[in-house]
Write a structure and sequence with these properties.
Blueprint (H helix, E strand, L loop, with lengths): L1 H7 L30 H4 L8 E2 L5 E2 L5 E6 L18 E9 L15 E2 L9 E4 L26 H10 L3 E5 L2 E5 L7 E7 L13 H13 L11 E6 L5 E3 L6 H14 L4 E5 L7 E3 L8 E6 L19 E4 L12 E3 L5 E3 L7 H15 L5 H11 L1 E2 L10 E2 L2 H5 L4
Parallel strand pairs: 3-9, 3-10, 4-9, 10-12, 12-14, 14-15, 15-19
Antiparallel strand pairs: 1-2, 4-6, 5-6, 7-8, 11-13, 16-17, 18-19
Length: about 400
């Protein structure tokens, strides 16, 4: 599982401080630099996270919720507080596996075991206590990389790509911007809490991912305050490597079956395409009900990054870059409890597109189907160029999609 996860999530830790006096020479200025370090700006919005349609309407994803299923999340980062002091966190939960008479230590802060897991899965540990999605390393090294992998900061960054509050990071004379794709939306954070699984004692059991999707469908989406407000679920993981011609296996079909239930409610399930640099996708995101998202460059817009999976099954993309500060090919996202850092990987493309669904739901409501909104994003996106790009590949442009008709 560790090899799978490392192939899925390329994190490119470049600089972890909030303000740095660093001014490396840039080889070529990125279009819009330094505003292009903000996700919203690259998606057709402003550095303040606003998208203005042709009639003058302003959209930010206000009133919508995106569920982010990830490793861990630090709620205290200022990126999750609005300018008026309101929290952008709609809720937190932790889901982990329990197996056998002696449960393997779970990362969830609870001893409660519930049976409302996915069909065929063992009972799961579950917690909705405040702080239940906080960082904690997996019991084995399956989900730890130098102490900084998915149970430390990864969820903070993906959540920031969705709803991160607009901000500025100063590096010498450069004022680098940061803003999530849907700054007016809120995020519900679910930590995958480790434990036993069919593949061993790991930090990210496939069973817990499936359980999380079923719980969102059966419980969260039917709960007052969430019902009719969840625009998307983001999963910044893809599983193992699967070629474009290969059939989706049992693990992928389980994820897809859960995604189909959410899709029927108007909730898009968005997943990272994977970082293997192949024409293909992952073993977990291979089903037809999944929206797979690849990554493009920022310094050279609308070109594929070297690491992203690509092909006809990966249609939508979002700008992430490769964390190369000298080439200004960087995206800034929240870092742990404070500050920002440079990121790299399709892990940070998919949450941007999940945020795009929130912005579109604000304008168009929940009458359009997920497929109709996906088609709108594809038809209004900017074509991705290059010899490795699929003919139908586009970079999402939220502003252009707001001017279209789903």
């Amino acid at each position: 599982m560790r090899a799978k996860l490392q192939s899925v999530v390329v994190l490119g830790l470049m600089l972890a401080a909030g303000t740095l006096a660093i001014t490396p020479a840039a080889t070529a200025a990125s279009p819009g630099w330094p505003d292009s370090t903000a996700a919203a700006f690259n998606l057709g919005g402003t550095v303040n996270g606003q998208y203005v349609d042709s009639s003058g309407g302003v959209f930010t994803g206000n009133g919508q919720i995106v569920v982010d299923v990830d490793g861990a999340f630090t709620a205290g980062n200022p990126a999750f507080v609005t300018a008026t002091g309101a929290s952008k966190i709609a809720g937190e939960a932790c889901i982990g596996q329990e197996k056998g008479t002696t449960p393997f230590p779970t990362l969830c802060d609870t001893t409660t075991v519930v049976t409302s897991s996915a069909p065929g899965n063992d009972p799961m540990y579950f917690s909705m206590l405040a702080g239940s999605s906080q960082p904690s390393n997996a019991p084995t090294n399956s989900c730890v990389d130098g102490g900084d992998f998915c149970h430390n900061f990864h969820g903070t960054a993906t959540a920031g790509a969705i709803v991160g509050q607009p901000g500025v990071r100063y590096e010498g004379t450069d004022a680098l911007r940061t803003a999530g794709a849907a700054v007016g939306a809120r995020v519900f954070q679910i930590k995958i809490g480790g434990g036993d699984s069919t593949t061993g004692r790991i930090g990210w059991p496939h069973e817990s991912v499936v359980d999380a999707l079923y719980w969102i469908n059966k419980v969260l989406s039917e709960t007052s305050g969430y019902k009719g407000k969840i625009a998307a679920v983001n999963l910044s993981v893809s599983g193992g490597t699967l070629s474009e011609s290969a059939l989706c296996g049992a693990d992928g079909m389980k994820v897809d079956a859960a995604a189909a239930l959410l899709k029927a409610k108007g909730i898009a399930v968005v997943m990272a395409a994977g970082n293997d640099g192949i024409h293909g996708r992952g073993t977990w995101n291979c089903g037809p009900n999944i929206v797979r998202v690849g990554a493009t460059n920022i310094a050279t817009p609308h070109t594929l990054t070297s690491y992203t999976n690509r092909g006809s099954s990966v249609v939508l993309h979002a700008p992430v870059g490769d964390a190369n500060r000298a080439q200004e090919n960087i995206l800034l996202l929240p870092w742990k409890s404070s500050g920002t850092f440079y990121v790299s990987g399709t892990s940070f493309a998919s949450p941007q597109v999940a945020g795009a669904y929130a912005v579109l739901r604000q304008k168009f409501g929940y009458t359009p189907t997920v497929d109709q909104l996906t088609a709108l994003l594809q038809s209004t996106g900017t074509p991705v160029t290059g010899t490795n790009a699929a003919a139908n590949a586009v970079d999402v442009n939220i502003k252009a999609a707001l001017n279209g008709t789903p």
